[in-house]
Amino acid sequence: MKNWLSPKSMTGIALIAIALIVLPHVVGMGGQAWVRILNFAILYVFLALGLNIVVGFAGLLDLGYIAFYAVGAYTWALLASPHFGLHFPVWAILPIGALMACVFGVLLGSPTLKLRGDYLAIVTLGFGEIIRIFLNNLNSPVNITNGPQGITLIDPVKVGDFSFAGTSQIFGMTMTGPQKYYYLLVALALLVIIINVRLQHSRIGRAWQAIREDEIAAKAVGINTRNIKLLAFAMGASFGGIAGGIFSAMQGFVSPESFSLIESIMVLAMVVLGGMGHIPGVILGAVLLTFLPEVLRYAVTPVQMALFGKILVDPESLRMLVFGLALVLVMRFKPAGLWPSPERSRELSEKPVEVVK
Amino acid sequence: MDIFLQQIINGLVQGSIYALVALGYTMVYGIMGLINFAHGEVVMIGALISITVTSTLAAAGMPLGLAGLFGLVTAMLTCMALGWSLERIAYRPLRGSPRLTPLITAIGMSIVLQNLAMIFWGRNYMTFPPLLPKVNFEFAGTHFTLVQVVIVLLSAALMAGLVFLVYRTKLGMAMRATAQNPAVASLMGVNINRVIASAFVIGSALAAVAGVMVGSYYEIAHYQMGFMLGLKAFTAAVLGGIGNLAGAMAGGILLGIIEALGAGYIGDFTGGFLGSHYQDIFAFVVLIVVLMFKPSGLFGEKTGDRA
Amino acid sequence: MQAKLSVAALSVAAAFALSACGQKEAPAPVAAPAAPETKPEIVVKLGHVAPMTGPQAHLGKDNESGALLAVEELNAQGLEIGGAKVKFQLVSEDDQADPKQGTIVAQKLIDAKVNGVVGHLNSGTTIPASKLYFDAGLPQVSPSATNPKYTQQGFATAFRVMANDIQQGKVLGEFAAKQGVKTVAIIDDRTAYGQGLADEFRKAAEAAGLKVVANEYTNDKATDFKAILTKIKSTKAELVFYGGMDAQGGPLVKQMKDLGIKAKFLGGDGVCTPEFMKLGGPAADGEYCSLPGVPLEQLAKGPEFKSKFEAKFGYQIQLYAPNAYDAVMVIADSMKRAGSVEPAAYLPEIAKTKMEGVSGNIEFDQFGDLTSGAITLYQYQGGALNYVETLGGAPVAPAAEAPAAPTAPAAPVEEKK
After folding, report:
1. How do residues B255-281 score in pLDDT, each as one tens digit?
2. Can you name the CATH fold of C166-292+375-391?
3. Architecture of domain C41-163+299-363 in CATH?
4. Pairwise CB contact (< 8 Å): A355 & B115
5. ipTM of this predicted structure
6. pTM of the full predicted structure?
7. DSSP string spanning C259-282?
8. Cβ contact (<8 Å) for A121 and B35?
9. Where are the domains of chain C?
10. Inter-axis angle of helices B192-218 and C246-258, nearest 10
11. Is residue B12 within 8 Å of residue B253, measured between CB atoms?
């Protein structure tokens, strides 16, 4: 990471770039469903990176992060669908969505500034649920969100006349909707990653780290913990908001069911499993945890047939079971995550002071 | 206005169940600083095991009351073993890790237990056999049943028993010492491992009883019943001040009453704008408001920020 | 750093490799060995989507069983379409009643090049998936999605073989008015289905002159309804309408009785299941519910379907199995008339369907809804569902003379207080 322009780094970057460009076509050979799953994985990368700012950098345990995803998604839905008859273009809605999410981030963060770690967890969890319930019920007396029915026929991302939905011919190649969205998502993801990396190594990033390690000492050194914490919430939320907007556009339909507590927990699991506070680790966590249930969906039946000659447990039940076990096992044997930052794994490999025998 | 009393009764019963479950959370948190997300699942397993045992015995000819008792005891023993194993296998190796690691493990165990239950007991809702005769009481315009009375009294008895245990026995003293300062407690000769294991085991026993209560009260049980219940109970524990027994009990009862009164009256107060469709979040709203003024919960101790 | 990079790359590659392996091992179409006869045999894959895990898994399984029964019967008949012997195969997927999963699974079916889709079960997943099927030109027949929006989107590929919430809610409102009550309380479970049905009921009830004295809400995971029921009790409503599913409806009626509420109870198809009876116990007695279509017993094919189903699967029909069966039959019938199994060819034929299904008369209007939106009302009595009356929709001529069941119900019993 030292010298970006050295020959070794350049080849590495070139290889990764080629892999990224070719990926949707390789994956697409197994069916467009896999490209879709890939797109969801990238959306989760956004979410995981956003949560990583709050949990990983600043050390604030947030269990209601999905609320910002919901805010972003509904902002797009309300501004680009027949519901209100508005059809704003993408370059207007995405910033508005990010801004709305920031606002909510600050709103959610403000009451929590004085709270200790685990109280913070339950309060943020509560906020996540509050947002979801409001979205589910704001259909009377004024119909804002259309309640549990959700909002349909949402506009896809459109640049001029070029729509990202549906198949089109570009440079003589056929590209399906999911493949086009993939490139958009990768471009945005790269931007988000760069912002995150810059943040991590900036004064703000170091202030976050200071608060995470020891809030009192941070205050003593003159860091305005209140503002820095709110900034963490706001920045983290904004990435969630952007992801939410694209999610809305991709699905064409949004409803409160997609933003439940389980989703918040999933994103947290991605961050912790991947390597909290370490950007490459978090990306790995997001991709892995998106693909794992889907891979299990395919693999569970053949594996059981091979081992036992018949289906003992049907795939759906086994999928989540294996997922839970994976969480437990990874935490047991690699508590810093699958790909922790070098400092963390050093910290954690030192034998903790064992009070108990 | 007579429905006010009825709503209080509804809330009291629901709250007693929350309180029982909240005690399990608070004991573990007080000693270990761990939010045991899997605790709600222990409640669920208690309920489902008691259904299986009771139905099997009753079908074999045992009178229902006796079968119910067997079911309850079996559930308690199984849950105690489950709690002990959880601690031993999943949490003990992680002592000393940063706070989030055991949390994710707890979430993972919660998912594992839920899915094991689904595989073993099936996906459908199961009916809970009626363990107590259906006796209805009427008082000042309110209706309540024998089951409700038993729940409230039994919970109160169990809570009193736990308070006795914690404040009048050696084990209880050891638990309190460990909660205050594990290092010094072990220097004083307290076996920390046993104390922690006891906390889990006792909490799980209470959870099993809560599970049987929930099953008897609503007469249904389902592999997903533990999750929401656990969440609400944990909220109750935080509301009362986590780590604090009295807080958990008060928080639980208070939460039940808030939910009942909220669902009943908010609609009237806000002219139909907010109504029972928001009943799931009353608890959270109240929690947030309380925490803004008392950041450690209602009865929480003002623990200074430890450097 | 390099080591970590390769670990990461390896794990991601492994994930993809596994998925690719999984793809190859996905059930390969069962191709019969080249028969010496002149007729080629082709396998026609039909997709089926429903929640197979989660709280509605019992309904998902039910749908799948109904569709499977239809597929097996068709295969037993040895159909010939467009000069080839046709063998149907059901490709079943789980959408977990989650809209996101619904779109993933829909894409999977499109990729697998199925010729038609029976599904999904929930409106919440059917609607987003319908856009994908429309874009792919794949006909979709839902056996149970009742949200009116599904067919209002204007997709030529969207059909349903079940009355929608507008039709059902209207009939329920009229029925409530006929019960001689003046005040109703409405509870819905804040899902797309429950809220949609309750809204339509409210409109119809008010149009019929009833007064709605309470609107209360719960959710689809709740078990405790005492608070809202207490409130309803204080309004002295004479009828309680519940828009939601059996898993909540059962405990709801129990708690109504516990609180001493004497009001009647009326619900939609969500509570017209054996599960409701099981969970409600003795409290379910005397309660009313509705089912779209005409009762199985009154159609010649009905009792036969019921006994075939129970013999094959060993459990009672839960709810929508007859509709799933009909959905498959509609697709097969349209393929026959078009003389082709290709979606583009038989799609126009679906709109012209005119057949007697197990669940009733099947004809589609220009949106893809059933024209004969007949709804039948039932009352639980003594542990069984008793027919009360059929309202709405065109009168259905019974396909055969006398219903097969010897214990055909006598004149419909209507309770008037």
Report:
1. 999 998 888 887 777 766 677 778 888
2. Rossmann fold (3.40.50)
3. 3-Layer(aba) Sandwich (3.40)
4. no
5. 0.85
6. 0.84
7. TT---EEEE-GGG-SHHHHHHHGG
8. yes
9. 41-163+299-363, 166-292+375-391
10. 80
11. yes
